Amino acid sequence: MHTLQQLKQYEKDFIENGYFVLDLNNLEYVQEAANLIENHLKKISGISDITLKNYHQFFDSNDEHYEMQFQMLQFFRQNQFAQKILQSNLDVYQFLLGPDLEIQTEPYLRITRPFKSKDNIGFHRDTFYGTGPGEISSVIPFVDLTEKNSLSVSPKSHIIPDRLFKLKQVVNAEVPKDSKRHKMGFLYAPKLMDPTIRDQVVPVPLKKGQALVFMLSIVHGSEENQTDYPRWSTDIRVRNSLTPLNENMKANYYKPLKVSATAQTFEKLSV
User: What per-residue confidence (pLDDT) applies to 247?
Assistant: First the structure.
């Protein structure tokens, strides 16, 4: 469990900067997930000496890589690795959001290979695409991340209205809507930010066992992994179940994570 002092510091950073680095409880969950992911990678690739860190040496082709990533994503979701990790850190999310929580049903598994810009989705804020103020995201790496292959954020950008950002709406011909890449979290109609945003972001290095937690209104992202090994990570959203959702949100995007005693009682009274 996190101490009250830690929780208050997380809350302070979250409010002031829009993000914080969380030291996760139960680090064995992260290590176990990383081991199982790597073992499954060996199994379905048929390559006995493949690892998370040398993956790119075997999957340099984009077509082969995206097909492998899609297969790994199915395994990742079926085993609910991200949900189990967040479940063991409920004290933090309830401190920030309240007792009634929902979690993203289908989190993403990102594999960002060295110097492959198309593996990234660039800088953005999720409110450009309809997310609400009651939703937050957590990025959990399965390898250590340095300044050269981590995500970057623009501190304090979470309180800037969307209308003040210059955007260019484009269509990504390489990511058709409902394609495999789209289902893996790539954007089919991205809203590109002004290139000067690069001057306003700072990298957030993470060790395995840490998470980057941020408001979805903060500018964040990455453009290129400049190390010699891939970034393997997940990102998963949590929200207060009592806050309104965007009307265009697809059904079952979220599922219950924690229901308070009062909410459970209310449900029984409503029957």
Answer: 77
